[in-house]
Structures are given as C-alpha cells and as structure tokens.
C-alpha cells in the first residue's frame, strides 16, 4: 500500500513493503485518496515526492488480480477496469498545485513508469532499476492517455519508439543522458537526498499553486484533453 508523511512543506508519498508495488483497485483507491489529501493541505511552498521501499518503484498493474477473474474475458475486463481507475491518478498529479518529484529507487515498469513520468521531475538510481514499458512484450495495447503522456513528456521520437515498440529497458545513466530523467545517482540514499534537495528548492519559490497547476496543464494540452482537465485563465500580477 502507500503512506503519506508531511515534513515541513514537503509531502512524501511512499509505496511501502518489499513487494513489487503493483496497482489493483484497492491500491489505486488509496493512492487517489492520498493525492486528494495532498491537494487539500497544499500551501505556498509545498512540494510532493513519490518514492518506494524495496527493489521496485512499481512493476505495473496487478496482473495476478486480473487473472484471478478465472477466464480470459474476465481478466481483460479487470485489466480495462484498472486502466480506467488509474486515469484519475494521472489527472490528479497534473492538477496538483505544487511541484512534484519522483524518486525512482528501483524498477519502474509499465504503469509504474507512467506514474513516475507523470511527475514534473524524475530522479533515478544508477546502480539498480530500469525504466521499462512491458506492453509490447506481453501483448497488451497501450491506453490513449499513456501514449499522450509519452508524446508530451519525452521529446525524442526515437526514445519513445524504443520504449514502446522495442520494450527497451533503460538504466539510470542512459535515462539521464537521453533526457528522460532529471538526474541519476549511485544509490538509494543519494536518490532520496537529491529528491528532497530538489523539492525543497522548488518549494522555496513559493509559487501560486493554482497558477502552477494551470501552467502545467497548458504544457501538456493533449494529455490534459484526454484526461478531461479544463484549463482556467489566471491573471495574478506581482508588481
């Protein structure tokens, strides 16, 4: 599951335990609830860090839960249900009135990678963990909002192709070199320390949260449209 801790102006959301942090309806519901809490308690200077315990940041949807339906059709319906349930998670991250940082200390695969990529900044571990979209390897198509996220977050078309059509497993040093993550560090402690440092520095700017969220949504118009997010105009001048 996941927990939320508040340290000063920082919200730290952590996937707990030593498992693969796969998403099923219960976990998705818990995550949405915590993101709603973050939004409700946000103040100027707030920032969010998302991290995980153990080897995995997240290994994607809970396919065991889907297959427990007992039939191919039932499994497909459960998988589609999870895809639909996860859409508001991405919408919530795009709408948060604060900077967001993903501290990727382990493997981030499929929707786990999607979750990380939905943050403003990604900090990754060099010595362990990869970014990986497994859909082409396990014969699953990619939801429309996943595709929009990759189009608007990763500018290099060859990188998008390699992730989505080759199932490339990209390590931290290459991800930093190719502009997928902000920076990569040698170990878990360094990733978490760098994430806190970045989030604190961003929070010190004390940006107007709603304005920050609207600028973010405007930066990713295709994704925002697919997620059903409306765009508001704000004029708040500092004279």
Separate helix tally: 11
Helix content: 40-55%
Mean pLDDT: 95
CATH architecture field: Alpha-Beta Complex
From the helix content, strand content and strand pairing, which structural class follows? alpha/beta
Organism: Gossypium raimondii
Protein name: Delta(3)-Delta(2)-enoyl-CoA isomerase
Family: Belongs to the enoyl-CoA hydratase/isomerase family.
Catalytic activity: a (3E)-enoyl-CoA = a 4-saturated (2E)-enoyl-CoA; a (3Z)-enoyl-CoA = a 4-saturated (2E)-enoyl-CoA
SSE topology sketch:
Elements lengths: L1 E6 L2 E6 L9 H17 L5 E6 L3 E3 L4 H5 L4 H24 L4 E5 L2 E3 L1 H7 L3 E5 L5 E2 L2 H4 L5 H10 L3 H9 L3 E2 L1 H6 L5 E3 L2 H16 L5 H11 L1 H7 L12
Parallel strand pairs: 2-3, 3-5, 4-6, 5-7, 6-8, 7-10
Antiparallel strand pairs: 1-2, 8-9
Helix pairs in contact: 1-3, 6-11
